[in-house]
Every structure is written in C-alpha cells, then in structure tokens.
Design goal:
By secondary structure, this protein is an all-alpha fold. It has one domain: Globin-like, CATH 1.10.490. The chain has helices at about 10-25, 25-40, 45-55, 60, 75-90, 100-110, 120-145, 145-170.
Length: about 180
C-alpha cells in the first residue's frame, strides 16, 4: 500500500500511531510505562517544582513566569505546575488515543500561539522534555533494578519523544508529511 501524505495536525491519531510504530513503542513498552507510573507519579510534585524552579533560574525562560513587578508570579507558577502535573498523570497512562493526541497538539499551540506575552520558543519545549527525561532516568536508576531501570527509561523516553513531536506540531507551518 503506497504512503498517502497528509497534514499531521488533521489526523493526530494517525501521526502518533505511525510515530509510535516508527520508534518501536509497542504494547510491551506501554505496559512498562504503566507499571512504573506509580513510581513517577509519587514524584509529581517534586518533579514539577524542580522544573519550574529551573525555568526561573534563567532570564530567557523566567520571563514567562514573572509578574509586573519583575518577581516570579507564584500563582502563575502554581497553575503551570498543576497543568504539567496533569500532563504527567495522563502521560503515565501511555494512552495514545484520539483525545490525547489532540490534547498534545493543543498544548503545543497554547505555547506557540499565546494570547498574551511572548511565544514560548520551541527550544524550551525540547529542553523541558530533556529535563523531564533526565529526572525520570534518575528516579528509575535509584528505585529499580538495573534491567528494569533500563527498560523503564527506554519506554518513557520513546513515549516522551512521541509527545514532543506532537507538541512541536503546534509550532510548525502546516505541510503534508
């Protein structure tokens, strides 16, 4: 059957399904993500706090979280942490469903087409995903036997990069792929 080009954002389920197949994110890895989800979710508060504190260390990323007085807007940071926690909880389900695929695109669009303030540059999305991957690998190495830590790291990394690809579609001009 020949490949039929399409606009990925018009068929997000196909996009994430094809990417999952391409990177080898299969049912075994779905099961690994779900099995290790409790370990990840017990760290949700610490992970989201660390990520936003990291953002606040750098003027280029801190500017998205500052109030008019130039100080961190803690209420805004808490709202963003809550949103990140929701994404992490949904990610832990490892469900690449129609709804979840469009949820990821919506997140990308909300960062790339903000109604107020500057657009969040795509490289910060990539950096945030890298920080998340690193935190998860560290957690797995601390809590799991080496073989299980490796399997968990591989599965979560594949899933997070599928998510990153979907998020970045919100930054790209529409072109058939």
């Amino acid at each position: 059957m020949p490949y039929e080009p399409y606009l990925p954002a018009t068929d997000m389920p196909r996009f994430v399904r094809e990417l999952a197949e391409f990177v080898g994110f299969d049912e075994t890895e779905v099961a690994t993500v779900r099995r290790t989800a409790p370990l990840v979710l017990t760290r949700e508060a610490a992970l989201t706090a660390a990520l936003y504190e990291h953002f606040l260390k750098f003027p280029a990323s801190a500017r998205f979280f500052l109030g008019e007085d130039g100080e961190p807007d803690r209420a805004r940071v808490e709202r963003r942490r809550h949103s990140l926690g929701r994404w992490l909880r949904e990610t832990a389900e490892a469900a690449l469903t129609h709804e979840h695929a469009y949820y990821l695109l919506t997140i990308g669009l909300s960062h790339s087409h903000r109604p107020q303030g500057p657009v969040v540059p795509a490289h910060f999305m990539v950096g945030a995903m890298s920080l998340t991957q690193t935190a998860l690998v560290d957690a797995f190495a601390t809590e799991l036997a080496p073989a299980e830590a490796l399997a968990a790291s591989r599965a979560w990394n594949k899933l997070l990069l599928i998510h990153l690809a979907a998020l970045l579609l919100g930054y790209l001009p529409a072109r058939p792929s």
